[in-house]
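Deliverable D2.4 — example input (structure tokens):
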């Protein structure tokens, strides 16, 4: 069953230099219990898409079109008060940078209990008891719910943020770069924890990252974003083993091989990401695309379903099928 259905979403930032088209005509679906990895270069609109779904936007940001259906209800038609009731109870987020997301002057357990007390008719003691159980669930000592953020390591703070996201048993959790600034060992522990909780609790998960290997390890399907739009959306194996969009092909082709005999010079994508105040006409990737033709400079391609469940934003998607295949075994 479809839990989240984003249709033609557009969100722009008003700046002194003009409108930044951070999210521009984005569509995607997420089923109950499914996990989606959202990947792309820095500044491509990944986090902006997440905060648009959550309605957690700064004053300079405006949603100018589209729909965000959650369980069939359009969140963009909800009032600020109605969205406060939905956040954490139905849709929760693990913010990027756990140290900045936690208030340094309040105990961590107190901060988690606040969300529980806001959404449920429980006493403060009952809320703190649940905090202790959440700590245990994410691998933290329940006896430390009265600690302050500075008393936790980076990995422990991130576990606490995950506990906070799970406090009200949401249907959907959005994790925005949950392993930022963590070392590789702790990163692996956090990802395994999130994967386990997602399966055990039946959550739907949107994982935002610039690391394709994180998505390959954790998610069911992948959406590759470029310049405010989704370039390709499909199941993880299809995207990694047989990428179609030239941008996806470039990203996957830059993944180093772990097999010594197959090691070769890494490829790169020429050029730089476009200015989202004044993006290129037609396909936004055409200035960097090795397959670009005249139509790419004039007309925006459709986001077409070329296979069941596989969508590609490219004029020549059918011709590019099978252009790059990788052995992921």
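Example output (designed residues):
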């Amino acid at each position: 069953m479809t839990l989240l259905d984003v249709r033609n979403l557009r969100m722009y930032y008003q700046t002194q230099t003009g409108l930044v088209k951070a999210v521009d005509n984005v569509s995607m679906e997420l089923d109950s219990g499914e996990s989606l990895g959202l990947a792309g270069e820095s500044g491509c609109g990944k986090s902006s898409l997440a905060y648009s779904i959550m309605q957690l936007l700064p004053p300079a940001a405006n949603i100018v079109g589209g729909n965000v259906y959650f369980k069939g209800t359009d969140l963009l038609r909800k009032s600020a008060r109605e969205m406060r009731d939905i956040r954490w109870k139905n849709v929760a987020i693990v913010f990027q940078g756990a140290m900045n997301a936690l208030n340094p002057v309040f105990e961590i357990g107190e901060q988690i209990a606040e969300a529980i007390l806001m959404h449920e008719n429980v006493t403060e003691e009952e809320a703190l008891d649940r905090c202790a159980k959440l700590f245990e669930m994410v691998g933290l000592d329940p006896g430390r719910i009265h600690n302050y953020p500075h008393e936790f390591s980076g990995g422990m703070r991130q576990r606490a943020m995950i506990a906070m996201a799970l406090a009200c048993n949401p249907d959907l959790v959005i994790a925005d770069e949950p392993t930022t600034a963590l070392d590789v060992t702790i990163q692996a522990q956090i990802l395994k924890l999130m994967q386990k909780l997602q399966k055990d609790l039946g959550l739907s998960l949107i994982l935002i990252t610039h690391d394709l290997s994180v998505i390959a390890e954790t998610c069911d399907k992948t959406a590759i974003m470029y310049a405010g739009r989704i370039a390709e959306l499909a199941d993880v194996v299809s995207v990694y083993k047989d990428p179609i969009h030239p941008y996806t092909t470039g990203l996957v082709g830059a993944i180093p091989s772990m097999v010594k005999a197959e090691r070769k010079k890494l490829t790169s994508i020429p050029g730089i990401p476009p200015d989202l105040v004044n993006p290129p006409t037609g396909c936004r990737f055409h200035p960097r695309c090795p397959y670009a033709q005249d139509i790419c400079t004039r007309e925006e391609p459709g986001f077409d379903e070329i296979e069941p469940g596989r969508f590609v934003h490219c004029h020549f998607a059918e011709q590019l099928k099978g252009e790059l295949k990788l052995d992921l075994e």
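The first helix runs from residue 46 to 54.
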